[in-house]
Write a structure and sequence with these properties.
By secondary structure, this protein is α+β, with helices and mostly antiparallel strands. It contains 2 helices and 7 strands; from the N terminus they run βαββαββββ.
């Protein structure tokens, strides 16, 4: 398959992050990617729950073996992914792209009526071998096409989607 050693799409699963973690533990080469339409146990930083609904979000995790990267620089993976996600989302929005911003360290937010509303997030995790990274997983979740009227009640005041 070339650059990508494994790419699988799932209709529904617990977590793309968990799938890629298992693949790497089993010896899968980098770069391996799991994409899902729905995650039943999606999560963000600090064990926060990531909610989604079918057809509304981009949910993916990418697995790497960045053995040349010192552990002290591992934070750069999520930083790079966050900046890249902001750039990609901004390129989709055209004239309204200036409403998007990076809320450090890992959230893409929309500025709406003076408030920051979460559109996307990045979750990175890694394992070490000595002072180097052995594996790294970067998970992304983007609310792409989720109508505001359908937001979960507990998140309606803090989330947004690219389509909105």
């Amino acid at each position: 398959m070339g650059f990508i050693s494994r790419l699988e799409r799932f209709d529904r699963l617990a977590s793309t992050q968990a799938v890629v973690r298992d693949w790497l533990a089993e010896g899968e080469d980098e770069v391996c990617i799991a994409v899902a339409d729905v995650q039943t146990e999606g999560r963000g930083r600090l064990e926060r729950v990531w909610q989604d609904r079918p057809g509304s979000a981009l949910l993916a995790s990418l697995g790497f073996r960045p053995v040349a990267l010192p552990a002290a620089h591992g934070w750069r993976l999520s930083a790079i992914a966050s900046v890249a996600m902001l750039g990609a989302a901004s390129s989709l929005l055209g004239p309204t792209a200036d409403r998007l911003a990076l809320k450090w360290p890992n959230d893409i937010v929309a500025v709406h009526r003076g408030r920051l509303l979460k559109v996307a997030g990045v979750l990175a995790e890694s394992s070490l071998k000595g002072d180097r990274l052995a594996t790294a997983i970067v998970g992304i979740g983007v609310n792409v096409d989720w109508p505001r009227d359908d937001y979960p009640a507990d998140l309606a005041e803090s989330m947004w989607s690219l389509s909105e």
